[in-house]
From TrEMBL:
Keywords: Aminotransferase, Pyridoxal phosphate, Transferase. Pfam families: Aminotran_1_2 (PF00155). The keyword DNA repair does not apply. Residues 25-366 form the Aminotransferase class I/classII large domain. GO terms for biological process: amino acid metabolic process. Its cofactor is pyridoxal 5'-phosphate. One of its GO terms (molecular function) is transaminase activity. The lineage of its organism: Bacteria, Bacillati, Bacillota, Bacilli, Lactobacillales. CDD domains: AAT_like. Belongs to the class-I pyridoxal-phosphate-dependent aminotransferase family. This is Aminotransferase class I/II-fold pyridoxal phosphate-dependent enzyme. It comes from Companilactobacillus halodurans. PANTHER family: AMINOTRANSFERASE (PTHR46383:SF4), ASPARTATE AMINOTRANSFERASE (PTHR46383). The keyword Transferase applies.
């Protein structure tokens, strides 16, 4: 058995979610997917594709009319200019995008620079490819990587081949302004490094307009995006990989080996989303924002400190100092005693200790119940631990 596979551990978030689902009546605030249905016109397009017998292999990179629709969408939304014939691949979600890009680029001994806390697949994907993940702890800089930290990382880690940037971020919900992105680009352009920019939450932004890193530094950026979060299509498994033609052609080789091509039905659904679904995210985004505000206010009133999220649908809250700071124990106690499921921040790596990740991709009733249950939990003396006399 390949040692790099044996070394991969099952993701803690999956084990915790399985435990939560086994408890009747649990209020689950862990789920990282929209609780909205896929828009009807997209479902109809998929059904029509089946009826029209569009049920065969496609070319590996995706049907050409879809790739053209993706290029038009990215241009209209983010002022990006990708050639649909040479610079875009339709992938099985961003997860496959990360996997295929890492496989195409990394060699044994390379390093992957990852701001942390971060989504849980990036480090294991680096390990699998013989590369070392290098984490930048962002917990002291409002969960954003700074140009100074980036410079220091390159100074001390000379084998960095990929800088992985995810914004808006899972798990923190923070994002970057255009000025902040340009400051990072000024550092990155001095190095022979690819930027893999995971922007799957780009349509779910609240505080300022999303600017893609593909616009800021196109010659070094591999952009990952898709429809899972924007159009409530997680189960369809649709993503896009965009970037310079020379590297996209190499990534496509790995994509071919992994998938042959993604589902034709998913591709026709995506074609409809990119053609006639420009405004689909708006109503969902408005509801997420209302939920965010209720949850943020409730957590603040309970003494939790958390940034006001710029996007996505997560709050990353610091447990009040007077309570148990072992976030894994805190979350498990909360699940056992209150039947409330919230993910420990430590699951998301360096900088996550003492935090909890709340997903507000949940009903308003569940959000209010969450705040109430958390308040009850904090009032019980037996839950208090590690308080200095």
């Amino acid at each position: 058995m390949k040692p790099s596979v044996v070394a991969i551990k099952q993701q803690e978030i999956f084990k915790f979610n399985a435990k939560a689902k086994s408890i009747p009546g649990v209020v689950n605030m862990t789920v990282g997917e929209p609780n909205f249905p896929t828009p009807e016109h997209i479902k109809k397009a998929a059904k029509d594709a089946i009826d029209d017998n569009e049920t065969h292999y496609t070319v590996p990179e995706g049907i050409h009319e879809l790739l053209h629709a993706v290029a038009d969408y990215l241009h209209d939304k983010y002022d990006l200019n990708y050639d649909p014939e040479t610079q875009i691949i339709a992938s099985a979600g961003v997860t496959e995008g990360v996997f295929s890009a890492f496989n195409a680029i990394l060699q044994d001994g390379d390093e992957v620079l990852i701001p942390s806390p971060s989504f849980t697949i990036y480090g294991p994907d680096a390990d699998f490819n013989g590369a070392a993940p290098v984490y930048i702890d962002t917990s002291e800089t409002d969960f954003k990587v700074t140009p100074e930290a980036l410079k220091e990382a390159f100074r001390t880690n000379p084998r960095i081949k990929i800088f992985l940037l995810n914004f808006p971020s899972n798990p923190t919900g923070v994002s970057y302004t255009e000025d902040e992105l340009r400051a990072l680009a000024d550092v990155l352009k001095q190095h022979d490094v690819f930027v893999i920019s995971d922007e799957i939450y780009s349509e779910l932004t609240y505080n300022f307009k999303h600017v893609s890193f593909g616009k800021i530094l196109p010659e070094q950026t591999i952009l990952l995006n898709g429809l899972s979060k924007s159009h409530a299509m997680t189960g369809w498994r649709f993503g896009i990989i965009c970037g310079p033609a020379a590297v996209i052609s190499q990534i496509n080789k790995i994509h071919e080996l992994a998938t042959t091509s993604i589902s034709s039905i998913t591709q026709y659904a995506a074609l409809e989303a990119y053609t006639n679904g420009y405004d689909d995210p708006i109503s969902m985004r408005d509801q997420y924002k209302a939920r965010r505000d209720v949850l943020h206010k409730g957590l603040n009133e309970l003494g939790f400190d958390c940034p006001d999220p710029d996007g996505a649908f997560y709050l990353f809250a610091k447990i009040p100092d007077e309570y148990e700071q072992d976030d894994v124990k805190f979350a498990n106690d909360l699940l056992e005693k209150e039947h409330l499921a919230i993910l420990p921040g430590s699951f998301f790596g360096v900088g996550g200790k003492g935090h909890l990740r709340f997903s507000y991709a949940a009903s308003m009733d569940n959000i209010n119940t969450c705040v109430s249950k958390l308040g009850d939990f904090l009032k019980k003396p037996q839950k208090v631990a590690n308080i200095e006399e």
